[in-house]
Amino acid sequence: MNDTVPGPVVLLEARDVVKSFGGRPAVDGVSLTVHRGETVVIIGPSGSGKTTFLRCLNHLVPIDSGSILLDGEPVGYRQGRRGLTERSPREVAVVRRRIGFVFQRFNLFPHLSAIENVAVGPWKILGRPRAECYREAGDLLARVGLADKADARPAQLSGGQQQRVAIARALAMKPELMLFDEPTSALDPEMVGEVVAVMRQLADDGMTMVVVTHEMGFARAAADRIVMIDNGRILEEGPAQQMINSPAHARTRRFLTQISH
Q: How much is the pTM?
């Protein structure tokens, strides 16, 4: 009889990722493993490389060296006899569909209503039936608290509402992994809470998430781990409460003190 309890399943693995701009490394040998159902929050000062690293994870920014694997499959590259070679744009798009991305600046289509913004991806990209896509889009808008805004255009929505539509749009593609790039940084303070509440619910529902943020209330409530990046490298990482309450490095302590004021 085998009483071994299965360990956490690795969904995302970055190994020694390097990305430079103009000869200067923005990401300098970063390695990170994310398990299914885990919420990992990445923190660090402006210019530390955290957003660049996040964009490397779904090949929005091609890496210079290292590797990124989603459920064991290279993201953006394929392994050949001569090492890694970049996949075709079509192949990259297929893998990228498995990864949702929520940007700082919403990036909604201004000429489409909220429900059209959510439905258009599954309908046009995945080729699913239009009626089914719109029905699911309505359900997703309800999930993020915007059932009554289905017909509103982005210009008729607040920043917080637009960001919630953007989250629903990403979820419509049924991703295995959600990436968030400072999703509350462009919002007025009173709108932050409504977006954080949706993200907390996603974490509670078991969505695998990597979140770049300075919103430590979310990190404290929803993160499993916190990763501190400085100068393109991981300075330290650990369980969320440990990192918030007693980080090992003085640099992390200073940073947390600065963003808490």
A: 0.92
